[in-house]
TrEMBL record:
Leader peptide range in chain numbering: 1-20
Record-linked Gene3D superfamilies: 3.30.70.360, Zn peptidases (3.40.630.10)
Highest taxon listed in the record's lineage: Bacteria
Cited SUPFAM superfamilies: Bacterial exopeptidase dimerisation domain, Zn-dependent exopeptidases
Keyword Membrane: no
Protein source organism: Hymenobacter terrestris
One Pfam family here: Peptidase_M20
UniProtKB keywords: Hydrolase, Signal
Residue ranges constituting the Peptidase M20 dimerisation domain according to the UniProt record: 211-302
Name of the protein in question: Amidohydrolase
Amino acid sequence: MKKYYLFGLLGAGLLAFRPAATPPASVLKTQALQDLQARYADYQQLAQRIWGFAEVGYKEAQSSALLQQTLREQGFVVEAGVAGMPTAFVATYGSGQPVIGVLAEFDALPGLAQQTVATKTPIAGQDAGHGCGHNLFGTASVATGLEIQKLLKEGKLRGTIKVYGCPAEEGGSGKVYMVRAGLFKGVDAVLHWHPGSQNATMVGKYIANSSAKFRFHGVAAHAAAAPERGRSALDGVEAMDQMVNMLREHVPQETRIHYVITNGGKAPNVVPDFAEVYYYVRHPDRADVQATFARVVKAAEGAALGTGTTMDYELVGGTHDLLINETLAHALQTNLEQVGGVRYSPEELAFGQQIQTSLGAPAPPVEQAAQVLPYQVREMGGSSDVGDVSYVVPTVGLTAATWIPGTPAHSWQAVACSGKEVGSKGMMVAAKTMTLTAIDLFTMPQLVAKAKQELQQKVGNYVYKPLLGDRAPALNYRD
């Protein structure tokens, strides 16, 4: 009997020295929600500072540095200037598997400077504004990274968290270069989100996109005294635009083609010797994008031939469509429903009604921001370089109501909302949802395995190749 008694004491001692078991995911999630809410004021201030910087693609020096500093101060190892982009970074904490990535964006849009009021009121001396809410995007993603880092540091989770600082999403295709550089190799899953006017899991496709600047070169001359000696580069641009507009009748109906003349000459009495037009071509299928883009190039060549000018073009952006990972999407939907939507104060409700009046179109009730939409495949319409990430690693995202319901992206109304607390409240919905989903990924290896299997099935025999080819990042595309 004594032998058994001594063994019992020894066994109890061994048990005392065992590392504590990982707390249940539900306990970790409760802690994470409390921690994130406790730091709400800090994250709100961070988002508002980036809103004030309002830096366009590849020029986001202050925004990127602020996010890097925030992560570095909490123990992340930050590698800056990755993939040939000065404002791109990868911040890492932890070691071993799983490796979970979180995407952060922070670029603004040109021509959208706007104060945080419900009437169109530009900011004097400023051009750009956060009309897509990327000040909120980057901050929520960093908040997610910091909360997971805290749980790793406390020994409640095991693995690695990576926060990807992704510049120039708005047309610069920053993530494509990061994928091409192999920065997502070894990553098990990636989380992302996007500001919007509703709370929903992203189970619709971003569409593929190719963009380029077409530059025509002519011969300058006095437009009145010697017009015969001139060859107008602007004629080349206008001829190209006319042919592309005729092309619209003969492309798949889902195709979208947009352009803006970025340089049309300097004075009417000088025949322009240089002109430039900036084009986007989009379609849900990347092969159709490439086929239509090739026809746009032919139109440009024909325009140059017909106007006696020469033409060259620079491929600026190119992104894949988004592969939906339903395994991860269902998990995220559950967490989004747990977090819930955004509830406005009486003052915010009044602001929302003013914003909706300014839209000049019917809008859903302002209170709809408190709702979470059911899991459903929806048309998304836009393009994003997140699509390229989704072809190499299981990827899942959500949209959160950072803008008053009915507010379109890329509008002055979206800029105003992104700088106010209505935006910050939606930002926290995203941070909390991504954090809860990350906890699932750290604690449920079967979820990660199933997501990887789904990705392999959807990619099939396709070998990923960036639509940008081997060109260097277009760091001056906003110039």
